[in-house]
Amino acid sequence: MSHSSGTNDNSGIKQVVDFTEARAVKMDEKRRKTERIFFKHLLGVYCVTGNTQMRPIELVEVSEDGCSFQIPFDGKTPWPAEHTEIPIRLYFSQDTYIPVHIKVQNSRDCIDEGSRYTRFGCAVDETFASYPAYQQFVRFLKSYSEHAHKDKGDVSIFYL
């Protein structure tokens, strides 16, 4: 039996693939893509500024205890610099919404699809009356992203 001299480069060792971890990473990517599509095309999200004005915001991610959103960067009038507790509205139609109260925990500048934004990480107020509805919405999104399928046009639709 001969042994080669030199360093052991581990080239003969086979790597073990952790399918559970790989599946979790894939599901996380799918969930994020699903959420972004849902947020951009199906859900209107606004922040209430003052008693009579609303400002559109873009949700980035949601979880049962927090969320992140972004707004276009504005160096002249940074917002919500002076506000840490913010009421937002999740519109599911033009005239119905779920109110959610959030507290800004952090912020950072970011680039998203070639545009500059300020992104905010927030905690959701779990004592607010609408929190159970928000919690169910987050659970629905998670379940939807796990079970959703891309429509490939393989089935015809007939209208009666």
Question: Can you give a write-up of this model?
Answer:
This protein is an alpha+beta fold and 160 residues long. The chain contains two helices and seven strands, in the order H-E-E-E-E-E-E-E-H. It has helices at residues 19-41, 131-147, and strands at 44-49, 53-56, 58-63, 66-72, 85-91, 97-112, 115-124. A seven-stranded antiparallel sheet has the order 2-1-5-6-7-4-3. Helix 1 crosses helix 2. The model is unreliable at 2-8 (pLDDT under 50).
Keywords:
160 residues; alpha+beta; Thrombin, subunit H; 7-stranded antiparallel beta sheet; 2 helices; 25% helix; globular; disordered N terminus
Provide the fold topology.
Elements: H1 19-41, E1 44-49, E2 53-56, E3 58-63, E4 66-72, E5 85-91, E6 97-112, E7 115-124, H2 131-147
Antiparallel strand pairs: 1-2, 1-5, 3-4, 4-7, 5-6, 6-7
Helix pairs in contact: 1-2
CATH homologous superfamily descriptor: predicted glycosyltransferase like domains
Summarize the amount of helix as a percent range: 25-40%
Number of strands: 7
Instruction: Please state the overall shape, judged from the principal axes of the Cα atoms.
Output: globular
Q: Architecture, CATH level 2?
A: Beta Barrel
Q: Which sheet architecture does the biggest sheet show?
A: 7 strands, antiparallel
How do the helices and strands follow one another from N- to C-terminus?
HEEEEEEEH
Structure classification: alpha+beta
Provide the residue-averaged pLDDT.
Answer: 81
Number of domains: 1
How far apart the termini lie comes to: 79 Å
Order of strands, main sheet, comes to 2-1-5-6-7-4-3
> What name is given to the CATH topology?
Thrombin, subunit H
Number of helices: 2
* Alpha-carbon Rg, integer: 22 Å
Q: Which stretches are poorly predicted, pLDDT < 50 over at least 5 residues? A: 2-8
Strand fraction equals: 35-45%
- CATH class type: Mainly Beta
